[in-house]
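Q: What structure does this chain adopt?
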Amino acid sequence: MKLLTFVLLISLFAGFGNIIQAQETQTLFDGDVTHGGFGGPMIKFEDVRGDFGVWVGGRGGWIINMDDYHAISIGGGGFGLATNHRVPDDSGLDNDDYDYVATNGYGGFILEYTNRSYQLVHLTATSLIGAGGFTVRDRDFADIDEEPVPYFVFEPGAHLELNVTSFFRVAAGVSYRLTSGIDKAGFSDSDFSGANATLTFKFGIFR
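A:
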């Protein structure tokens, strides 16, 4: 009787062991996850109160390749207004003496999704959330007018990316910047919120 009970218990545990071994561990990413990273300059073009505006800066990120089709990158970037834009005549500043121009810059956290990055040309989608500072200065940088006015910025975008080499990629696309908090010297959020044409140069390890 004892021998029969022992044999039954051994059989029962063996059966449970086979069931446990048959179950695969569930994870957010599968075992094919690889990692990389990149950094590089970025240029943006937009309309600022009817004038041609150029932003220059850079961005970088940590790449998580989830499989052959999907990858995300987590990082950040910063951008500054490279072109001069004179304040409006109704700004309240004495433009005849100082010729004031706008100074603007922003940066923040950037999340990017890449689809089928192994293809020569593929699609990426980005989203930036962060903050900036806006002020005015004279054209010779002699006098800075007060402290920058802080503002919030949210900027989603979509881009076509070209694999130039294994370590270098170029992306061109569009983004739409939304700002909240700019109200100074005749400028408002509407002057810096809007569509941008973007050009990004990426150097790094992508797989």
